[in-house]
Amino acid sequence: MAEKDFFERVYGVVRQVPEGRVTTYGAIARYLGAARSSRMVGWAMNNSHAVGGVPAHRVVNRKGLLTGKHHFPGTDLMEQLLWNEGVEVEDDQVIHFDRLFWDPNKEIKQE
DNA sequence: TCAGTGACTGACC
DNA sequence: GGGTCAGCCACTG
To answer: Which end of chain A is more exposed for a tag (fewer CB within 10 A), N or C?
Structure first.
């Protein structure tokens, strides 16, 4: 893969997340070879609004918790977006997270 | 320049 | 098995 910015790689991975699926900060960080820099993934999401086209609502923490929902314009926008894609959310947590989890390491795993 | 903070995670007790 | 600690890197005051 080309030597793109760390953020660009994060965005690239998030954009590849299929509709109705979710992934985690850790999975993305691991895919980028920075498993211990998962916070940077979260930071990238914080900046994703400036880039646009990044379904940040499909990115949750490893527990399937919508930890970043408060960073969305609407209080429940993140949850609404997930519901709109067929992802069930309850108590700020993705239901059947294990089933909906989309691992870039397994789905992409190339380059 | 230094110190604090954050949309996280894994290890340790 | 649940709470605590440290590591990671970038940004802000």
So the answer is: C
Q: Which residue has the higher pLDDT, A1 or A62?
A: A62
> Is the CB atom of residue A24 positioned under 7 angstroms from any atom of strand C?
no
List the domains of chain A with CATH numbers: 3-104 (1.10.10.10)
Cα–Cα distance, A91 to A15 (Å, whole number): 25
Cβ neighbours, 10 Å, residue A52: 7
> Which bases along strand B come within 7 Å of a protein CB atom?
6-10
**pLDDT score of A2 more than 80:** no
Reported as a single tens digit per residue, the pLDDT across A52-74 is 899 999 999 999 999 989 889 88
**A36 is near strand C: CB distance < 7 Å:** yes
DSSP-H helix ranges across A1-111: 6-15, 25-31, 38-51, 77-84, 97-100, 104-107
- Other beta carbons within 10 angstroms of residue A20's beta carbon come to 13
How many whole angstroms separate alpha carbon A73 and alpha carbon A16?
Answer: 23
